[in-house]
């Protein structure tokens, strides 16, 4: 009899939890985006270059990179413009003066776990990319594009950077400028530049709900995403374990444990733009 009596409250609690979860999932969705299993696969890309600002930024596109390699057998490369020396440590794992070396090692391990073929880690100032001459950044990105010869470049949307970070917006602008120049310019040694650029975006309802002023800025300055693909909880969580100095950065920034956040922020969202015709 006691078990029967307890069934009603238990069911009510279960329905309440289900309703809260459904509401949270709706906040972190972009229903107009086309759902695909793989961005690279949907486009038919054969070579992908991701261009980001900091160690751990690659986790924002971990689903794209992992799936491109494992499912579609695509060449993948990653450029990271800084070594992350100005970041906080959550938890504290090393002397602060050693943080650049620690985060560089974490980044290389993360890239290996994602099966990235090639990585470049530059030495531009962390939290100082907006002070670097844009043409200097563009030239470095152009050189990386010529080296890796991608048909798809992945980066941040320059007007919002997915999180509102100035470094994210700056590297997004540099990557966009470089990709456009090479796509619109003459072919060199048989390579005519990338065909597509994919900007990683945040779900606007979700980032507005959890991100405070920065989240409101991001939501207001993002375009509509064109594509959504699975982010893979296990891949993301493995990445944060590798980035040990930043393991609790999601919880610190948003007051939500990473695992719980990714249960509702399940997809990666992108605006894909074609830079040149196939011919």
Describe this structure in words.
By secondary structure, the chain is α/β, with parallel strands linked by helices. The protein has one domain: 3-Layer(aba) Sandwich (Rossmann fold). Helices cover 46% and strands 16% of the residues. Strand 3 (75-82), helix 4 (99-113) and strand 4 (118-124) form a beta-alpha-beta unit. Mean pLDDT is 94; it is low at 1-5.
Concise summary:
The chain is an alpha/beta fold. The protein contains 11 helices and 8 strands.
Blueprint of the fold:
Blueprint: H1 2-27, E1 34-35, H2 39-43, E2 47-52, H3 62-70, E3 75-82, H4 99-113, E4 118-124, H5 134-148, E5 152-156, H6 166-184, E6 196-201, H7 204-210, H8 212-220, E7 227-230, H9 233-242, H10 249-254, H11 258-264, E8 267-274
Which structural traits does this protein have?
Rossmann fold; 279 residues; 8 strands; disordered N terminus; alpha/beta; single chain; 8-stranded mixed sheet
Structural class: alpha/beta
Placed side by side, the strands forming the largest sheet appear as 1-7-8-6-5-2-3-4
Overall domain count: 1
Return the string of H and E elements. HEHEHEHEHEHEHHEHHHE
Report the CATH superfamily: LmbE-like
What is the C-level CATH assignment?
Alpha Beta
CATH topology description: Rossmann fold
